């Protein structure tokens, strides 16, 4: 028994020559010693022994009455060595050098393990050694017996074909049978049939009368085998989860490090049956185990992680070299007991064939783990189509996944995905992942460009990846939220263990303004992968929008207790603190976000929103400028233009037309995305610049003809703005009708522009002198404080209510509403036009 656990064994393929001195036990002790020394001298003198030992491709195992040689170079090596030994034994009679040895030899190729025994001595074990000994045990003196596997390999070489003589099957230890081939030609080997075979034939003849019993026994064996196989097909259920260990790479080539694990993960993710534990959750669990989050996931560590998570199995991988071939091994192990559940081994003729071989091994392993053949056939794309045939591209991709999924650092991930797509221009998922990095940064144009490339290459992907690409394409490229929702529903139904469709549904329902469904999708994503910092953020946002502020903070507290966090948490908590009027907390969160590319600019703009919500527009302008500068430093040109456009809308709705036009003009040269262009169209319309407004309206309508947000929110708001500035309130109200189904939704990825159609409709009703209808719209804004957050319209809605009540003749409620507005704007800049108007209106009420 060894001191090493199964997960620590070093797996390799060995070509084994087992040698035994026949009649050894009957010799005197001195004779035994002499014969062993003679055997050692003969073996060590062979060219095969010396060459393999010099190359470090030889393992030796003494057995008392002989020994085993494990060659790790070519399948011919043990055969050639056996021939050299035989030739030494067959020296002419009377020669003084002729050794007096009677040997039998067995040869087999199979897995071997280098181990350390209880005496701390190097040793060898494994099926390759065991079966080589069984082969040898079937022979007599002079026999060189080969397993059928070795013989099949030699059949490819013409010089061996005439020497191979099939013996059939022979029963060995524990009733197992092995197929054997006798190697002889002329004076080489022993042409006589081994006694075990002749004895077996005689015994068979005597037992002919028991044939019925034997048949019954065979039937039982078959039934047992079938039962075992049926049991094997149910090794895992579709509720079980799997931990992927890192591959044991003994090739010395670093290109396989991390790469094969990513490739195997992509292969297994095709399956709707199997559920892999995410890298985020593995990192979280490692931290709880006081291990580095990026610790190498050895087989032993993978089992420990699986035990803590409650996973059913871990899958260990290995890659080694066998001559010019690569041997890829997969082994599924029960996380609770350490027992092996299934294993696969394949060879690849060259590095460029490794990923293909890995895909074949993964498909076979899926069947052994319990997935149905129908499912495997349906969801089994070619390996080169699942990811990429380029190992270098896959390695870069795996590093990008680590940065984006584990640390949520999209900026750091981008160069890796860019390199992957450069190394393989047909790598669809590299383009998709790059698009997914740009999208939360607000860089929708470049995100759409990469998503479009991924969509064009979708036929080179697995079914899962195809669904993934299609869903993101509909959301980012066409912008058709209903089509995107349907694509995500199909994605989620096909792959219920996948978090991605749920995350997409969360953001889609947010755009549609259905916050209950957005909340449900966010919870589903977090349930599937509770270790994801991104999923934590989605749940917190969803809680905020439903005014469940305490729940959001409780979720964060629990997540951080389990080492789950995200750079974007500060942005959400800032909003939660705003809703709880916690100025100190807001300042702490703003400070925490500084210096983080992609997050800092969002926080600065949120601070500008807070300032504008309080009427401090001078401060809001400075914070907007800082946000623009930060976005530009992070190479977020589209986001920078969006901030300028957004600020222009804020300035326009409070009557600061000159500032609004200035910001709009400074941003117009940089715009190419729908959000920035949409904001500018609205700002130009509200400031009466019909020429620029109409030009942008036309451009948006053409470029984003299917986009729900553009067609149903930005364009109606811009048209309503033009109608208001020309005194046509009825047209403004009519223009906003199309926005009604989506008016509660957020239009941008920063979640800072919701319910603006409602606000403009309220303003339109005021212009139409319909106080009652205006009150309904402004109250709608106040009723959705969690969605509106620190948007300026949250405070301006109180002023709108006051004006509505004044039109309706309810002076008391009007005064109260005005006073609420003044309280919120107590620190406002005194020269803001709308504040001056409000003070004058309030004075008349008194």
Q: Any idea what the radius of gyration is?
A: 37 Å
Q: Given the structure, what is the number of helices?
A: 40
Shape: elongated
Number of beta-strand segments: 12
The fraction of residues in strands falls at: 5-15%
What structural class do you assign from the helix and strand content?
alpha+beta
What's the helical proportion of residues? Answer: 55-70%
User: Main sheet, how many strands, which sense, barrel?
Assistant: 8 strands, mixed
What's the pLDDT, averaged over the residues? 89
Low-confidence parts: 1-9, 227-233
Distance between the termini: 97 Å
Characterization of the model:
This protein is α+β, with helices and mostly antiparallel strands and 846 residues long. It has 40 helices and twelve strands. The strands form two sheets. Strands 1, 2, 3, 4, 5, 6, 7 and 8 form an eight-stranded mixed β-sheet that branches. 52% of the residues are buried.
What's a quick, concise take on this entry?
This protein is of the alpha+beta class. The strands form 2 sheets. Strands 1, 2, 3, 4, 5, 6, 7 and 8 form an 8-stranded mixed sheet that branches. A 4-stranded mixed sheet has the order 9-10-11-12.
Topology:
Elements: E1 10-21, H1 29-45, H2 47-54, E2 58-62, E3 66-71, H3 77-89, E4 103-116, E5 122-125, H4 127-137, E6 144-147, H5 148-154, H6 158-161, E7 164-171, E8 177-183, H7 195-206, H8 211-232, E9 242-249, H9 259-268, H10 279-288, H11 299-309, E10 313-322, E11 325-334, E12 340-348, H12 354-368, H13 373-378, H14 383-386, H15 391-406, H16 410-423, H17 428-438, H18 444-456, H19 463-478, H20 481-494, H21 500-512, H22 515-528, H23 533-545, H24 549-561, H25 569-579, H26 583-593, H27 600-613, H28 617-633, H29 637-653, H30 657-668, H31 674-686, H32 690-703, H33 708-725, H34 729-735, H35 756-767, H36 771-783, H37 785-788, H38 792-808, H39 811-824, H40 833-845
Parallel strand pairs: 4-6, 9-10
Antiparallel strand pairs: 1-3, 1-4, 2-3, 4-5, 6-8, 7-8, 10-11, 11-12
Helix pairs in contact: 2-3, 9-12, 9-15, 15-16, 16-17, 17-18, 18-19, 19-20, 19-21, 20-21, 21-22, 22-23, 23-24, 23-25, 24-25, 25-26, 25-27, 27-28, 27-38, 28-29, 29-30, 29-31, 30-31, 31-32, 31-33, 32-33, 33-34, 33-35, 34-35, 35-36, 35-38, 36-38, 38-39, 39-40
């Amino acid at each position: 028994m060894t001191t090493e656990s199964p997960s620590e064994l070093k797996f390799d393929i060995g070509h084994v020559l087992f040698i035994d001195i026949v009649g050894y036990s009957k010799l005197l002790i001195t004779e035994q010693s002499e014969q062993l020394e003679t055997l050692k001298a003969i073996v060590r003198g062979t060219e095969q022994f010396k060459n393999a030992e010099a190359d470090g491709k030889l393992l030796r195992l003494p057995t008392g009455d002989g020994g085993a040689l494990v060659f790790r170079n070519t399948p011919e090596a043990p055969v050639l060595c056996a021939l050299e030994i035989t030739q030494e034994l067959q020296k002419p009679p009377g020669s003084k050098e002729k050794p007096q040895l009677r040997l039998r030899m067995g040869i087999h190729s199979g897995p071997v393990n280098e181990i350390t025994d209880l005496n701390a001595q190097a040793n060898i074990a494994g099926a390759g050694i065991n079966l080589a000994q069984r082969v040898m045990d079937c022979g007599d003196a002079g026999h060189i017996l080969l397993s059928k596997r070795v013989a099949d390999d030699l059949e490819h070489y013409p010089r061996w074909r005439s020497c191979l003589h099939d013996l059939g099957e022979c029963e060995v230890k524990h009733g197992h049978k092995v197929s054997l081939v006798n190697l002889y030609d002329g004076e080489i080997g022993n042409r006589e049939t081994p006694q075990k075979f002749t004895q077996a034939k005689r015994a068979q003849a005597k037992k002919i009368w028991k044939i019925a019993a034997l048949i019954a026994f065979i039937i039982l064996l078959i039934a047992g085998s079938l039962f075992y196989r049926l049991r094997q097909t149910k090794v895992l259920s579709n509720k079980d989860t799997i931990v992927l260990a890192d591959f044991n790479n003994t090739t010395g080539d670093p290109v396989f490090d991390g790469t094969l694990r990513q490739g195997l993960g992509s292969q297994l993710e095709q399956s709707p049956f199997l559920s892999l534990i995410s890298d985020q959750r593995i990192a979280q669990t490692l931290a709880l185990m006081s291990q580095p989050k990026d610790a190498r996931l050895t087989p032993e560590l993978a089992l420990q992680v699986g035990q803590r998570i409650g996973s059913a199995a871990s899958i260990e991988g290995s890659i080694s070299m066998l001559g010019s071939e690569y041997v890829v091994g997969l082994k599924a192990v029960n996380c609770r007991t350490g027992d092996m559940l299934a294993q696969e081994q394949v060879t690849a003729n060259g590095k460029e064939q490794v990923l293909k071989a890995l895909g074949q091994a993964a498909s076979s392993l899926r069947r052994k783990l319990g997935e149905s053949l129908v499912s495997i056939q349906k969801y089994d794309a070619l390996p080169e189509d699942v990811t990429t045939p380029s190992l270098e591209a896959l390695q870069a991709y795996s590093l990008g996944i680590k940065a984006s999924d584990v640390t949520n650092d999209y900026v750091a991930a981008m160069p890796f995905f860019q390199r992957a797509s450069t190394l393989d221009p047909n790598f669809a998922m590299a383009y998709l992942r790059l698009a997914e990095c740009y999208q939360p940064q607000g860089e929708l144009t470049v995100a759409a460009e990469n998503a479009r490339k991924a969509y064009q290459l979708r036929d080179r992907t697995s079914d899962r990846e195809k669904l993934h690409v299609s869903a993101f394409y509909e959301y980012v490229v066409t912008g058709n939220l209903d089509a995107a929702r349907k694509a995500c529903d199909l994605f989620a139904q096909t792959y219920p263990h996948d978090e991605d469709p749920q995350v997409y549904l969360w953001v889609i329902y947010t755009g549609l303004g259905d916050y209950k469904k957005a909340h449900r999708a966010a919870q589903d994503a977090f349930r599937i992968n509770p270790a994801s910092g991104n999923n934590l953020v989605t749940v917190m946002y969803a809680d905020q929008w439903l005014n469940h502020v305490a729940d959001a903070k409780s979720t964060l507290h629990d997540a951080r207790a389990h080492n789950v966090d995200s750079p974007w948490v500060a942005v959400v908590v800032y909003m939660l603190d705003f809703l709880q009027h916690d100025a100190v907390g807001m300042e702490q969160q703003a400070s925490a976000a500084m210096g983080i590319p992609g997050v800092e600019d969002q926080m600065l703009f949120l601070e500008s929103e807070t300032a504008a919500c309080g009427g401090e527009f001078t401060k809001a302008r400075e914070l907007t400028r800082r946000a623009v500068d930060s976005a530009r430093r992070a190479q977020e040109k589209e986001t920078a233009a969006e901030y300028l456009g957004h600020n222009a809308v804020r300035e326009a709705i409070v009557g600061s037309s000159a500032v609004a036009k200035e910001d709009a003009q400074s941003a117009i040269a940089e715009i190419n995305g729908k959000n920035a262009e949409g904001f500018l169209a609205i700002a130009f319309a509200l400031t009466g610049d019909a020429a620029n407004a109409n030009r942008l309206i036309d451009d948006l309508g053409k470029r984003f003809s299917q986009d729900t947000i553009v067609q149903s929110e930005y364009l109606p708001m811009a048209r309503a703005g033009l109608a208001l500035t020309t005194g046509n309130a009825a047209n403004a109200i009519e223009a906003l009708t199309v926005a009604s189904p989506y008016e509660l939704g957020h239009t941008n990825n920063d979640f800072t522009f919701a319910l603006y159609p409602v606000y403009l409709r309220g303003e339109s009703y005021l212009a139409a002198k319909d106080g009652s209808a205006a009150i309904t719209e402004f109250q709608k804004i106040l009723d959705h404080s969690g969605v509106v957050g620190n948007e300026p319209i949250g405070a301006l809605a109180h002023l709108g209510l006051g004006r509505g009540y004044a039109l309706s003749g309810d002076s008391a409620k009007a005064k109260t509403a005005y006073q609420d507005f003044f309280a919120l704007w107590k620190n406002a800049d005194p020269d803001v036009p709308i504040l001056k108007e409000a003070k004058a209106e309030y004075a008349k009420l008194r």
